[in-house]
Design goal:
The chain is an alpha/beta fold. The chain is built from ten helices and 14 strands.
Length: 326
């Protein structure tokens, strides 16, 4: 997608599953997997895949190139690895992050959440604080240019004071809700306090989808609404400011903005009126993450979503889980 780069970094993908390799294929317009992002980027070379199911690793390598392994030792013995993608189920993030801390690598790009628990995440932060290894988390919407611009507009006060908002998600507070919480914290800052008003056990047994009222830093409420993922998948956010209403719909593929205008019918009334609707490049978010990683390694550009961001989300998730009624 871009010009050749002078420096090339070798990439290893741990986890030959959907997000690692199989959500898309070479040549697809959308870039939905770690394999596609790093094989398409001119600054990286995909060396191969690791998976406990060697057949999956072999299949991924046959599609994307590189070799296949069933353990870290085999991969690191054969190749000099610079970047490791951790694309395994949530419960294995902690053990792989600890194991990778012993390797001579430059960068880890891990699927969210950072770990399954806050104590594990704090342990990872302490472990990596003394290591020359950077860690980026794949909260995918953080890397989308249109959403980055939206975040800047919000933080720079272009829309005025935040009044209220609503967000919809399902498939577990930590597993999927953390995407929404990470974006919310990035847009609006910390949560002052929260109260839980609903629980749906629709994914992991120990990770229900939680509904709650979150009082943001300025005191305005955000209503977190869980929707049972067994009915359908949803990710939406509706943010109301003094001068603008902003809606993220279709999982964040579309941004709708409404300007506040005087009503042409009712004197003295003001209403939000549709001003723009635009499609985002969420379908290439993981490529933008790879570009941010490349610029971090090559030019020391700051990472968009690191360990501290993951810890902030886990703190909020724990606070919400502690508020679940007995």
């Amino acid at each position: 997608m871009e010009e050749d780069r002078a420096r090339i970094f070798n990439v290893l993908i741990i986890g030959a599953g959907k997000i690692g390799a199989f959500f898309d294929q070479p040549g697809c317009e959308n870039i939905l997997t770690h394999a596609h992002a790093f094989s398409a980027h001119p600054g990286f070379k995909l060396t191969g895949f690791i998976d406990n199911d060697i057949g999956q690793a072999r299949k991924a390598a046959s599609i994307w190139g590189g070799e296949f392994f069933n353990n870290l030792e085999g991969a690191f013995h054969k190749h000099k690895i610079d970047v490791v993608c951790v694309a395994v189920p949530d419960e294995y993030h902690y053990s792989y992050l600890r194991e990778l801390a012993r390797q001579n690598i430059k960068m880890i790009f891990s699927e969210k959440p950072l770990t399954r628990t806050l104590p594990e995440a704090l342990d990872i932060k302490q472990l990596y604080s003394s290591l020359p290894i950077s860690v980026q988390l794949n909260y995918s919407r953080r890397f989308v240019p249109e959403l980055i611009t939206l975040g800047h507009n919000i933080k720079n006060g272009l829309y005025g004071r935040f009044l209220s908002g609503t967000g919809y998600y399902g498939k577990g507070l930590l597993h999927n809700g953390s995407h929404l919480l990470d974006l919310l914290l990035n847009f609006l800052g910390y949560v002052h306090e929260c109260s839980v008003n609903g629980v749906i056990p629709d994914f992991y047994d120990d990770d229900p989808s939680v509904s709650a009222v979150l009082n943001m830093a300025g005191g305005a409420p955000f209503f977190l609404q869980s929707i049972d993922c067994r009915a359908y998948t949803i990710f939406e956010m509706d943010l109301l400011f003094e001068r603008r209403r902003v809606r993220l719909v279709d999982s964040g593929f579309v941004i709708k903005e409404y300007e506040v205008k005087e009503s042409p019918l009712f004197a003295g009334y003001r209403n939000p009126v549709m001003a723009s609707e635009r499609r985002t490049s969420l379908d290439k978010a993981i490529y933008y993450a790879a570009e941010n990683i490349y610029r971090h390694l090559d030019e020391n550009e700051p990472l968009y979503c690191g360990i501290d961001d993951g810890i902030n989300v886990l703190r909020l998730c724990r606070q919400l889980k502690e508020g679940i009624p007995e």
